[in-house]
Specification:
heterodimer; A: alpha+beta; 3-stranded antiparallel beta sheet; 3 helices; B: alpha/beta; 9 strands
Amino acid sequence: MNEPVTVIASDARPRLPRGVRLVNNEAQGGWVLLAPERVFKPDPIALEILKRCTGEATFGAIVDDLAATFAAPRERIATDVAAMLRSLADKQLLEL
Amino acid sequence: MATNGSTLHKPLGLLAELTHRCPLGCPYCSNPLALEGRADELDTATWARVFGEAAALGVLQVHLSGGEPGARRDLVDITKSANKAGLYTNLITSAVGITDKTLGALAESGLDHVQISIQDSEATSADHIAGYDGAFARKRALAAEVVRLKLPLTVNAVMHRANIDHVGEMVDLALALGASRVEIAHVQYYGWALKNRAGLMPTREQVERAVAAVDELRKRHHGKIVIDAVVPDYYARYPKPCVGGWGRRSLNITPSGKVLPCHAAESIPELEFWNVRDHSLAEIWQSSPAFMAFRGTDWLPEPCQSCERRDIDFGGCRCQAFAITGDARATDPVCHLSPHHARVVELAAVRQEQDYAYRR
């Protein structure tokens, strides 16, 4: 069985909800995502995505930006980013 | 100071018990049997200093708790100071004693998250467990206000024999209230809960039903609410990694300023705690006798020392080891590999219908 492909509208503007904050903390050695009674240390790819979830940039623009920044195929980036955003949203860490 | 070649970790979380005063009388309260009085509570300025020291030490999140933190008249100022120190602020409340006006002021002060405890899925039973008429209604009302202010809400549901069969209703209630997260928190038997153990202990059948129900609820509500739950201690096969390892991830400050590795640590008589009135938080974290006592894994006895789970659960909970075996250095007897495990099985079978000894 194939994994269902996550579809996110290209004009969606993903943002961190109130109570979820991405902060750079020197004492803890870098970026951390703070959420209700949970702390996550995002890996470098997740961090690049999270930094762009400002509520201003659209999903389409985020994908364009990442594809340009990392010189990667746009379609592949779109699939990966959509899956990650959906997973974050399911954990109440992101609003789509 | 480092053990097993590891460096001293930096704490992530601080549980700030602002007061032991609380209008509710829950028979499983995590506060110690000997409650600290109002006259001994740290003042606003001391908490502000401590939050600054905590942030410098690496703490990311502060859990403003009690007792009922709403019993502090300076709760808004305390919250502001935590926010100013750069900490993520989490209010852990019974909802009784927090007015809508106070909540509004807290939201404006940068409060990040609210956790409200709920004792059961309907009022009569919930108020009986809390020992406070009208508590359930107040909790519903404050939860609605939290959601109206667009603050994230966690419902904390403490489960025991009287309400464990309502786990589905509790999750439904959390959803109806607009919570984004629900904690299914089985009673842990320290302090008041230890005193009330025979009256609170669920049966194995109840626990198995609840665990299966939570699995099903997680699937049904995937993406709508986060359900956090752990297997209750006395029916587990392995112990919990208590506080993520002693003196490794978190610390707890009592209303009078004593700094504990976990909220129940005062139940271990051999430990010496330092106070924020006398020492900086960094000194206490690094060198106080209580934090040094069980830090790392060098001190662990067998069967833990050679166990493949040694660095997963760190031998389990020291307070539980002491409460059940009389030796705080023993393997947590919840573990099926502990030589004292049979005692846990025996204790789980001791159940008695009795009036609660309410926390007062």
